[in-house]
Amino acid sequence: MGAMGVYVASGFGDRRTWLVAFYAIIAVGSLAKGAAGFLPLAIVLVDTMTVYGVAGLKRLVSIPGWIVLAALAVPWWVVARRLRRTPGIRQWRGIERPVALVFRTR
Q1: How far is CA 17 from CA 10, 24, 47, 60, 61, in A?
Q2: Nearest CA to 37 among 64, 61, 2?
Q3: Rounded distance, CA 19 to CA 60, Å?
Q4: Which of 3, 73, 14, 9 has its CA nearest to residue 40?
Q5: Domain edges within the chain
Q6: Cα angle at 5 between 4 and 10, to 5 degrees?
Q7: pLDDT tens per residue across all 106 residues of the chain
């Protein structure tokens, strides 16, 4: 939610200095929520491509923002994977039963 607020404050990508904060919040979100922390980035990409087309993706280019994103998010993902603390989809036993209950056939 914070990332979306910063994106709107940036004028939907017009003010590039705000994009650094946007990418920093995305990185912190990925540390807190894992891959779900990147969801605001996906929403912004779809919004930008819908409104401005593929050429509009240039509005989201922020090298300092990407550096902040990589510096904050990548080390945690690398360490977690090396320590094998991130479960693969087959190891998510907690979601099998609820999903089966929702999609069961009668």
Answers
A1: 8, 12, 19, 11, 11
A2: 2
A3: 7
A4: 3
A5: 2-103
A6: 95
A7: 677 777 777 776 677 788 888 889 899 988 888 778 888 889 889 988 998 898 888 888 889 999 999 999 888 878 777 776 555 555 555 555 555 556 665 5
